[in-house]
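> forwarded from #structure-qc
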């Protein structure tokens, strides 16, 4: 069923997905049978092969264009070469990282290789999280395919609630912002307020879009008796960059920590080594998001911010209300600057946005855009405030059934009213 789901978009790319799956399965079986040195060689070879597939399909054009730009900067001349028109397979970054994590865990002996190919394939291809995560770890998801699953009314209730809430975030919140964002980023910034509004709107769009997808995935998983990992934990309530990365795209953060930051040396070797590893990890994490130098700069910004966070060690400060407010504001400033880099189509465009801040002119149309932004932010803040205060993502399901039914009915009604306007708007993380 997962293969049919994936192949419905483009059946030819099932071959690539199959190669990744068969490689991880076969190598996983072989690793425990080998001597340590040969095991290491096989593991490295398999990881290089999987990452080479990812690099070719996702970064080939990026590498070629970067080489041309470098040659022009050095020599002033141009070089000719074949132009590659490569279709980016949906979800290749996610299922590649999941395969790499599985092989490393098997090699370390932290999990046993899965011998049943159907069980392994179900883990690798489970359709709700196949194309945009969360990046599942074998020790969490694999055992759920081993045991007999049960489906309770609580699972059904929670699954439908999460899916409807996720669709609300995607269609009503994210896509309403997306129309403004696409319009603003399709032309040079005309004033500083244009850049500010475009960035703020994108921050709402990407959160509603990706968090919405993740909630839909978790909700559908519940309807199959499967509990997927939570991708988000109210990241815009964070009071430090370190906390932000514990709350935003959490499975990717733990993947980068366990399979990149720690192998680089982690916090061993002193402060400078630790900060170097942080910055390298975040830069590569930025590149994972897309084939553009803007993503690398986005990762560098967060790496530097995390380094400052570690150097100052905010946990030692007394957390008064004023300190929390200032910390939250500083964190959100870094996050918003990062989103500007993340969404900008090029480094030069990002530079234009920064330069536009010299002229903070309020133009015709900005008031309408601000009202649209407020209309999306207010319900989102109110919904999350209730959940944060209760420290319970499912707090609305604890309310009286009439209130719960009205709220969920409102989500579904608004989604159905606006879904035609979302036609053709893919989830943002499909491109990663």
């Amino acid at each position: 069923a997962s293969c049919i789901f994936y192949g419905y978009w483009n059946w030819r790319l099932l071959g690539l997905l199959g190669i990744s799956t068969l490689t991880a399965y076969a190598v996983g079986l072989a690793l425990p049978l080998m001597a340590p040195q040969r095991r290491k060689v096989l593991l490295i070879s398999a990881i290089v092969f999987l990452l080479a597939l990812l690099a070719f399909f996702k970064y080939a054009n990026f590498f070629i264009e970067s080489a041309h730009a470098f040659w022009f900067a050095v020599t002033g001349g141009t070089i000719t070469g074949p132009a590659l028109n490569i279709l980016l397979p949906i979800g290749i970054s996610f299922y590649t990282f999941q395969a790499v994590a599985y092989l490393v865990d098997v090699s370390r002996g932290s999990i046993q290789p899965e011998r049943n190919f159907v069980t392994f394939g179900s883990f690798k291809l489970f359709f709700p999280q196949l194309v945009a995560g969360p990046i599942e770890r074998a020790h969490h998801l694999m055992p759920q395919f081993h045991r007999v699953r049960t489906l309770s009314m609580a699972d059904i209730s929670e699954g439908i609630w999460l899916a409807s809430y996720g669709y609300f975030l995607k269609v009503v919140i994210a896509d309403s912002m997306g129309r403004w964002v696409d319009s603003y980023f399709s032309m040079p910034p005309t004033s500083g307020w244009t850049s500010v509004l475009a960035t703020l709107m994108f921050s709402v769009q990407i959160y509603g879009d990706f968090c919405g997808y993740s909630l839909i995935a978790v909700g559908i998983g519940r309807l199959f008796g499967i509990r997927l990992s939570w991708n988000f934990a109210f990241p815009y309530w964070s009071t430090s960059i370190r906390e932000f990365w514990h709350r935003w795209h959490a499975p990717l953060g733990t993947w980068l920590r366990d399979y990149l930051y720690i192998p680089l040396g982690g916090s061993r070797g002193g402060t400078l080594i630790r900060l170097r590893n942080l910055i390298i990890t975040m830069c590569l994490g930025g590149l994972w998001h897309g084939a553009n130098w803007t993503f690398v700069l986005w990762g560098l910004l967060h790496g530097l911010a995390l380094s400052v966070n570690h150097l100052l060690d905010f946990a030692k400060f007394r957390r008064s209300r004023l300190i929390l407010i200032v910390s939250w504001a500083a964190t959100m400033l870094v996050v918003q600057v990062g989103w500007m880099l993340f969404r900008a189509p090029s480094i030069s465009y990002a530079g234009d946005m920064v330069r536009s801040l010299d002229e903070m002119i309020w133009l015709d149309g900005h008031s309408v855009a601000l009202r649209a932004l407020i209309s999306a932010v207010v319900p989102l803040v109110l919904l999350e405030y209730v959940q944060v205060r209760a420290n319970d993502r499912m707090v609305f399901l604890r309310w009286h059934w009439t209130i719960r039914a009205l709220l969920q009915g409102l989500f579904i009604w608004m989604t159905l009213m606006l879904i035609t306007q979302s036609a053709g708007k893919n989830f943002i993380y499909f491109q990663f």
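QC bot note: The CA atoms of residues 26 and 149 lie 27 Å apart. The longest helix spans residues 36-75.
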